[in-house]
Amino acid sequence: MSKKGLFYILFYLPCILVAQLSDFKTIDFTKADEVAAQYQGASLDNLPVLSYNLTNSLTTEVEKFRALYTWVCNNIENDYYASEKNSSKRKKWYKDSLQLAKWDTFFTKESFEKLKNEKKTVCTGYAYLIQEMSQFAGLKCEIINGYGRTTTKNIQKLSIPNHSWNAVYLNNKWYLCDATWSSGFFDWEASHFLANFNGTYFLADPILFAKDHYPLDTKWLLTPIPITIDDFLNGPIGYNSTHTYGVIAIQPKNLEIECKRGEMMTFYLKESKPIEISNLYVELVSGSYRKSNEIKVTRLENQLIKIKTTFQIKGTYDLHFKLNETHLTTYKITIKKE
Is the pTM of this model over 0.90? Predict the structure, then answer.
């Protein structure tokens, strides 16, 4: 990112975030969510009728979309194992276009049969349902294909696209959403999907969204300044809480950083709404080793937070910035001898 672009984010981002998040501040989604709950468990056999039932009592476009989105997130299970299988096969056939095409055809058919019969799917199924039901309700909606970046799928180079989400047109403006990531999460200990609606990916702020979503067609970034694929691939890792708290890691801008033992390091975070900085802390983790690091936190103008710290133990660590016990962002740091 250029210095001009960084300056723009540092000093003008707060206005952009507030404008984005306040677009629908006067809308109460209670009725839309109640309508979605009323049709809990409804069949997918007739999508036009289901879409009508979910939206016909609502008056605004955003409430209609909210009801559809909430219903999909609360009624469709994320098929984690199918997603992993698809990822493995696509990597295997990456350089064999014929085999890849055959696999895609097979997997697409299998996925949509499972979606209809078992209400289980992968990201493409979520995106398909959101688009189809939105269009039946008279809303413009697009499927966006690209790259999703998480703590378990931290892609560091371009390969086959691994994720799909949606853009919806409301009140003459495009908005981004990800029903897959809003629907819940996979519980590793219990080895099954846990439904848990996460509204942070509903009409998400484009700048925050671009921390873990990068579209093949960059017009769907919807950000006020360009974000390069290198910025996306090499940036620090974000979490759901990044969206919940609206906190962005600004500097250093790369995931992998180095310093000397005893060297003072300075980090900058950007908040879209005030957080309690006294609850911020930094943690170094390597295997079973876990240690909090002493920090000095200063709140600056333009919702900027400066964090200074010194590392005394050499080695390579995951460097977590946390608010209470919640991860905000993570770097990978190598601490060398003086």
Answer: no
